[in-house]
Amino acid sequence: MPCNELVKLVNVVKVYGSGETRTYGLRGVSLTVCSGEFIAIMGPSGSGKSTLLNIIGLLDKPTSGKVYIDGVDVEELSSRELAMLRNRKIGFVFQHFNLISRLTVLENIELPLIARGVPRRARRELAVKALLRVGGDTSWLAKKPTQLSGGQQQRVAIARAIVGNPDLILADEPTGNLDRVSARTVVKTFIELNQAGQTIILVTHDPEVANCARKIYVIRDGRIVGKLEPDPSKCILNTVQ
């Protein structure tokens, strides 16, 4: 089956600081992600996982190398064009949820749609649909995020990520702050989204989460050092503890 290249990185280097304080976040990473894939990226703390995800998500720029999103060379885009591409093509899920505590669940989910100028009624309809799609409950809509459990907050964060129907979901340690039961629910949600055609790149340090993906890349010291074949029997949904 031909690969529709949704993400392509070519020899991407990321350097922080200069002189004696110069440190490498990434050291020449090349990676291609096809539309519809579910990829896990594993590695120890400080290996470059989050740096890689931030560059793919257009939250950071490489020091050198090329980044293409759906065939577009992002280096050629203005700041406004980058923001538009990020809003329309990419949804983010973070370890700490990154929900805005002063807003309701509904308002949090609607945020990506406001930047697109979607009318209020349509925003609500899309937000409700997204929340239900990830196993949420409409009774949460008027609540503040702090009134929900960690697992519920993460489902709200996933709903916010998918509400605008982006091509790509980027998840940075999405189960890192969750208990095992909540982690299973979140992983199951990602699997269902992928089965429906969503492309997912998930960063994790947990092998039981990584083994639920379709491909596993290992990153160490800013380099992709290997590719592993996932073992579904070791996926968190299939293991007992």
Characterize the structure shown.
It is a single chain. The strands form two sheets. This protein has a six-stranded mixed β-sheet with strand order 6-7-8-3-9-10, with helices on both faces. Helices cover 32% and strands 27% of the residues. The longest helix is centred in the last third of the chain and has 16 residues, at 180-195. The N and C termini lie far apart (38 Å). The protein is α/β, with parallel strands linked by helices and 241 residues long. It has one domain (36-58, 77-234): P-loop containing nucleotide triphosphate hydrolases (Rossmann fold), CATH 3.40.50. α3 packs across α4 (120-133), α3 (105-114) runs parallel beside α5 and α4 crosses α5.
Biggest sheet overview:
6 strands, mixed
CATH topology: Rossmann fold
Round the Cα radius of gyration to an integer and report it.
Answer: 18 Å
Structural class: alpha/beta
Describe the global form.
globular
Q: At the first level of CATH, what is the class? A: Alpha Beta
Number of strands: 10
**Structural domains: how many:** 1
Please, how many helices? Answer: 7
Relevant terms:
single chain, 241 residues, alpha/beta, Rossmann fold, 6-stranded mixed β-sheet, 4-stranded antiparallel β-sheet, 7 helices, 10 strands, 32% helix, 27% strand, ATP-binding
